[in-house]
Q: What sequence folds into this?
């Protein structure tokens, strides 16, 4: 009998139900073909300040199509959190096919405004870390701007440390340049800390 790999065993647990702090049920499931409309709708409801520094401009259909294509190619694993038919947030771990960075992944987490401070961010982070471990990743990176103090605090509570501060490295939707903070953490042990309450 063929033994399934740890990643597939974990991914097969989805979809699953989680409960927010207000007792609202949320379904977590893996992203796939046909999710573009829900993602675009989610992006349309984000405040302008949130849109300025999106790593992937999910307001653009072509960018969303490329994201979902990477999911199909196995370069990205994305969890979508649904409240009924409404996308409430997502978590993504991206990998690169290059041999020298194949054990490194980058995570992105985004929670809709009406679902923040309800524990959804914490649950998405915990699940995406589990997936990162099962995929064999050994180092997780997170990118943000210096003024995203809330995000930095959340990652620090998980044990992330600042690796670098790059000056004028990113450009927002208005064409203005900003510094970039790169934070990282070894994957081993992360999920033990991810149960701590985070206001995401």
A:
């Amino acid at each position: 009998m063929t033994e399934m790999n740890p990643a597939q065993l974990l991914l097969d647990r989805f979809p699953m139900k989680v409960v927010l702090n207000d007792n609202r049920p949320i379904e977590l499931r893996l992203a796939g073909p046909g999710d573009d409309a829900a993602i675009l709708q989610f992006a349309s409801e984000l405040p302008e300040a949130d849109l300025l520094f999106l790593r992937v401009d999910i307001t653009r259909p072509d960018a969303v199509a490329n994201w979902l294509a990477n999911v199909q190619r196995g370069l990205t694993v994305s969890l979508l959190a649904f409240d009924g038919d409404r996308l409430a947030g997502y978590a993504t771990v991206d990998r690169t096919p290059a041999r020298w960075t194949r054990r490194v992944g980058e995570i992105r987490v985004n929670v809709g405004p009406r679902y923040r401070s309800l524990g959804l961010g914490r649950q998405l982070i915990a699940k995406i870390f589990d997936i990162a471990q099962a995929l064999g990743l050994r180092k997780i990176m997170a990118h943000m701007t210096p003024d995203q103090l809330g995000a930095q605090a959340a990652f620090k509570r998980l044990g992330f440390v600042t690796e670098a501060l790059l000056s004028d490295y990113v450009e927002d939707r208005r064409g203005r340049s900003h510094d970039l903070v790169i934070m990282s953490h070894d994957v081993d042990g992360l999920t033990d800390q991810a149960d701590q309450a985070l206001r995401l």
Observations:
- Residues 190-200 have pLDDT under 50 and may be disordered.
- Helices lie at 6-11, 36-44, 48-51, 61-73, 120-134, 149-157, 190-193.
